[in-house]
Design brief:
single chain, alpha+beta, 2 domains, 7-stranded antiparallel beta sheet, 5-stranded antiparallel beta sheet, elongated, disordered N terminus
């Protein structure tokens, strides 16, 4: 039987046993015959999957680094360097495929068959690399699709750690949740902080606030830096200024919006202008920000996988027209933050909202993340029909 299959199922069985112990509240007895209620710490099944997926993807990182190093060490000629790069590309394309060694073997074998194109030294280098890959025998035979399947069934707050960073996400269903943008209380006062919006939802709308977070960049006056539409009214026009060194202008940037049919979208700014400049009345709410994390399933070209630029970041992604996901981390680079939207939540489009000053109130996981001094703020609350 497959070793990795056994390893994964062992983990699964162990987690089930722990869950059963937890549910049954098994009773232990001390030497003094006094009963002690033993309730072990609950193992989160999503975190268990993510931890093992993390080990799996780290192996791919090892392979990529090895290929790079071997390419330098052996001073490969141009054609053979290209061949090795092609191997790397194929591995990266199959980053979710657990049958890594077989895939790698097939690629190497295809090169070996064309010996006239590969000299002896390079064959030895490839063979050495192959052996080093096989040493990585801790692969778990499952794919990240299991994480996607689990997350696709979730709604509301989600918390997990991945590759050393802690993440908070909230999945909103537009059929069950009300999503609103907030900037001005009236013609003079602004909401400014999360507390103000939480109070508004409770008092004015008589609803339970589930998520509140800042919704885009703004000027010193707290005026949104880009397009801002609230309750079908345009307060700030689309910003088409030339790029500068701010994240907002790290092109392409884009617009997150919900139309009057209650469908959610993220569009690149130029596409939004082309498709909606004459249909603004069809938009219920919109906030422009940047950069686009994902644009039609493509990660922003400026993001670097190994960037040390780990900061606070929040953003929004589209799962489908009726399901959106908001994300927050206080220690992550752009690339990893984007990967979570792309690979875990299967988003094709996602937008960065803001950075260092960001906060995210979650009623169940981050109830004390309040305050702030923001421009636009976005909230998610229970529709009245969903409240008890």
């Amino acid at each position: 039987m497959n070793k990795s299959f056994i390893a994964f199922n062992t983990l699964l069985v162990n987690s089930i046993i722990v869950e059963l112990v937890f549910l049954c509240h098994l009773t232990l007895h001390s030497n003094s015959n006094k009963e002690l209620n033993f309730i072990p710490q609950k193992i989160d099944s999503l975190q268990l999957l993510i931890d093992n997926y993390g080990k799996h993807t780290l192996n791919y990182d090892v392979i990529v680094n090895l290929i790079d190093q071997k390419s330098k060490d052996t001073k490969l000629i141009e054609d053979n360097l290209l061949a090795l790069k092609n191997i790397k590309i194929e591995i990266c394309k199959k980053i979710t495929n657990p049958k890594l060694i077989k895939q790698f073997d097939n690629l190497v074998d295809s090169l070996v068959k064309e010996k006239e194109k590969i000299n002896k030294k390079n064959l030895l280098a490839i063979d050495s690399l192959k052996k080093e890959v096989i040493k990585e025998d801790n692969l778990v035979d499952y794919s990240f699709n299991e994480i996607q399947n689990m997350l696709s069934k979730k709604q509301g707050s989600i918390h997990f750690t991945f590759k050393g960073s802690e993440f908070y996400f909230f999945v909103a269903d537009l059929n069950k949740n009300d999503v609103r943008l907030h900037w001005k209380k009236d013609s003079i006062q602004k909401h400014s902080n999360l507390n103000s919006v939480i109070d508004l939802i409770k008092k004015k709308y008589k609803q339970k606030p589930l998520l509140v977070t800042n919704a885009g960049m703004f000027e010193e006056s707290q005026k949104p830096l880009g397009l801002y539409i609230e309750n079908n009214k345009e307060f700030v026009p689309l910003n088409e200024k030339d790029p500068n060194d701010d994240n907002f202008y790290l092109m392409p940037n884009g617009v997150f919006f919900i139309d009057t049919a209650n469908h959610a979208f993220i569009k690149e700014t130029k596409d939004f202008k082309k498709d909606y400049s004459k249909k603004m009345k069809s938009i219920k709410l919109a906030t422009q920000s940047g950069p686009l994390l994902l644009n039609n399933n493509v990660i922003h070209k400026e993001f670097q996988k190994n960037s040390p630029n780990n900061k606070v970041r929040n953003g929004v992604g589209i799962i489908n027209q009726s399901k959106i996901v908001f994300g927050y981390s206080d220690n992550v680079n752009f690339y990893l933050f984007t990967e979570i939207f792309k690979y875990f939540f299967n988003c094709k489009n996602a937008l960065f909202l803001d950075g260092a000053i960001s906060k995210m109130y979650l009623y169940d996981l981050r109830p004390n993340d309040l305050g702030g001094e923001f421009g636009p703020i976005i909230s998610v609350s229970e529709k009245k029909s969903q409240q008890n």
